[in-house]
Request: fold
Amino acid sequence: MAQTVVGFFDNPSEAQRAVQQLESIGIPRQSIDISPGNSNTNVSNARNTNSDREEENGITRFFKSLFGDNDNEADRYSRVAQKSQSIVTVHAQSEEQAERAADILDDCGAIDVDERAAQYGYERTGYSSDRNRNESEDETTIPRIEENLEVGKREVERGGVRVRSRIVERPVEDSVRLREEHVRVDRENVDRPVAGDELSNFQERDIELTERAEVPVVNKEARVVEEVRISKDVSEREETIRDSVRSTDVDVDRIDENRSSDTNSDELRNQNRNRR
Reply:
């Protein structure tokens, strides 16, 4: 259902900012009206008395069309509108859109109509005090309110364990015995006749002897020396929640007849004093 939301601003820049935010939430520009108020001295000085009266009547007619038979509310809003710098009117297409528009107008600095109207001498309702008093004397409802304690639970982080695996190098040493071969050539001077079997060596020939040596050979073997297991143990505990809840107690005291008569007499005297 379409609804109309009106915001009054003392600062035109705040009104312009409200219009921009209203458009940002999807309210079309043609559904937003912004008009200057009646407190701008530059504008009011340029107008004559007749034009001011015509604009005042137009503002009054607009708010009377909004509030229907409630002339008091229409007068309140008309008075505040005439003292404002800018007026932003939003023609919302739904109740939800109207609530969002009202929140934006308040956030951008829209004035409090009730507070401003009270400064101008306007009350919230147009009903007389006698009528309100009679209605309250006929029937008054006092609600009894009780608070209930609702205990729920939610998960929170209490810390934990972080396990990281990294490679660390450390120097090691070990000893090993190595064997080496060395060829030694010895010469000895002799002077003797050749023996019978030594004559076969009287020829050219080559003799080779190979020297051998042991060198260290390093080999690394990876072995599992420890296993680290990560797991969680889950336990439950019972906790007692202590708090306080509030409730409304209604005490009924019967008033005696004499005091009631005195109270009625005081009210009548006050009414007569107000009429004078």
